[in-house]
Write a structure and sequence with these properties.
alpha+beta, two-stranded antiparallel ribbon, 518 residues, four-stranded antiparallel beta sheet, 17 helices
Length: 518
Amino acid sequence: MEKIVQDFVQRARATWRRRWWILPIAWIVCLGGWAYIQSLPDTYQANAQVFVNTQSVLNPLLRGMTVRPDTEERLRMVTRTLLSRDNLETIARQSDLDVYMGSADLDAQVSLLRSRLTLDGERRENIFTVRFRHSNPDVAERVVRETVNLFMERGLGDSRLDLSTSQRFIERQIEIYERQLQAREAEIEDFKRQNARFISGDGNFYSRLERGREQVAQAELQLREAHSRLAALQRRAEESRSGGGTVRAQYRNPELDRRINDLQENIDAMRHRYTDDHPDIVAARRILSELEERRSREAADYARNPAVVPIGATGGGDALQAAITDAESEIAMLETRIEEFQARVARLEQDVDRAPAVESELTALTRNYDVLRDSYRQLQSRREQAIMSGAVESETDSVDFRVLEPPRRPTAPSAPDRPLMATGILLVGLGAGTGFAFLLSQLRRTVSNRRQLAEIAGRPVLGTISAVRTPQIRRRRRLELSAFSMALATLLLVYAVVMGLYLTGSAGVLDELLSLLR
């Protein structure tokens, strides 16, 4: 470590001996550098900040009723494509770059915008900053303003254009499906008209055939019941005729007799289908016994006042004959009905081979029609959603653009940073002079101490002779040091003046001075 320090001190002393090379080089570099940075053109930067609010209160209220685009993805796409060539050409035309640049070369204008126009965004806060640098402050402000306008137009207009395009597409699809549905409906109608005997609205072919057979069996059962009732009525009529023309008066209640006869007929009919323990038969017999007991009581009351009357004076024979006539009419009606039912069953049985194919074709036609109808209804629902979404997009803004900081005409140049560059040039000048002096000290090396002499000679140094500094030598060294300090102070003073002019905005004095020197 001590050796390193000694080497450093040795080289510093060697450089200091050649210090008169430092200031000339520093003056040349600083004056030339300061003149150069003063000749650099001013660059003005215009800024604008836009806040994009993608959270709308309508989103939860209209969920399911409208289709809202993905605002976050759309915003990312807009920011990625904003600086595309088409958009840059639009910005160049709207900001009149050709007039300010004095050139109609569109490629040069696009290259200028691509190199100097920037869009920076903070993803979490959705705050975007637009920046543009140009030598003309008016151009910088116009370019930033047109870029902000285009950014807002792309964010709002693209979604509305997409919705309009979607609505037109859905309308065209609905028209296509309407025509297809009409064609399928006409096809189904023709098919039903041609195969009307195989198709019925009350079930498929086999259910109608089974129902027809059940109707035949039911009508035959009713016919047997009617025959049984007719036979019973005829037996009663024979018994009435075999009793003579005039007997002792008997009690007659035609209404009660009719009810008893009907109940007996019902019991006989039910016995063909059920057993004697069936609840309906048991209930009917109970009612029959009650009616017979009632007739017996009324007959006993009637017997207390006997009288000889002709049979049939109470109308019993006429009622019996009327019941027989009704039974015969019912038998004829049932026979006709059975014939009709049997004819229907016969026709259905003849078509039993063709019916399945017809039903399969109808099922296929109906299935295709149902698919088209469901798609048509879904398209109608989507159309309503598209209309609602279009109304929301046109009357409200799903994405709210707020200009936090509008673009303004810059009054002070943003570049170059002349104070910083002037300081850097001063340091470069001093460093260049010091480096040149150090280089000379290394090229023309001298021995400055015993250790260095011992290393070079390879022999021990027995002693040294010190130089005697006379008053003249000391006076000359003080003069040299004063001259060096004054030159360095002058350089620093010039630097201070330049910095003061830059910081006070009076750099025009330097321009006048440079014009005089030229």
